[in-house]
Amino acid sequence: MQGRLVTLEWPGDDDWAAIASWLRPGSPAAVLSGDWELLGAAEVEQANRSGRVHHLVIRTKDGTRIGTVSYQRSGRIGGYTVGGAIGSPELWRRGYGAEAVVLLVDYLFHQLDAHRVQVTTAGYNKGIIRLMTKTPFVVEGILRDHCYLDGEYHDAIVWGLLRDEHYASLKPSEDNRVLAVGLEDFVSEDDKVQARAVLAEHLATADRTALTPYLEPDVTAPGKIVPAERGAA
Predict the structure, then answer these.
(1) Is the dihedral of CA 124, 128, 133, 137 positive or negative?
(2) Closest CA to 140 of 162, 159, 154, 124
(3) For the N-acetyltransferase domain, which residue ranges apply (predicted)?
(4) pTM, entire model
(5) In angstroms, rounded to a whole number, what is the distance separating the alpha carbons of residues 221 and 201?
(6) Per-residue pLDDT at 14
(7) Are residues 134 and 178 in contact, defined by beta-carbon separation less than 8 angstroms?
């Protein structure tokens, strides 16, 4: 997945340790997200291979590995929770993390048939809250005392985005507040049209199809379908 600032790639063998370091307790990214996992590289890799979570590596245009985004299923079919982390504070507020999350969200809706995507942000993270207010995500609730930092508990904000809201956001907005990318289709519309045309031609000229018995109704018995004779037009 490629954006203007970053690309998202599936992790390789040398990426698991970096992902674990970004998510470890006390790391700058984990502190600001309000979320962390006490996992080593092997555990992160196993969690991905088992399908419990899916991480992607964020790389800048020059190929530098700078962070990760992740998604996992939540709720019923079509629901996903996403998260992300830019490892070095020096790279924060440059648009890298924002674009990476937008790319991931668009991937979930456009390729994995997501119906709802959820993001949870720490109530003390001013930068992320300000960023989320510029997206089409809707505030859906407050998790009281969900995060712990500096000796006290803090609330977390739950943001949600539905499928129709996502696609509406891809259209230009009047105030330019919507963060949207819109990934290119894997298969071009022209190829899709040609594929349907090839199938239509085959169905019109060939009798090697399971549909043949349904093409000629039995006029002697209303509602009953009988097979058409082989070779009949």
Answers:
(1) negative
(2) 159
(3) 1-164
(4) 0.74
(5) 31
(6) 92
(7) yes
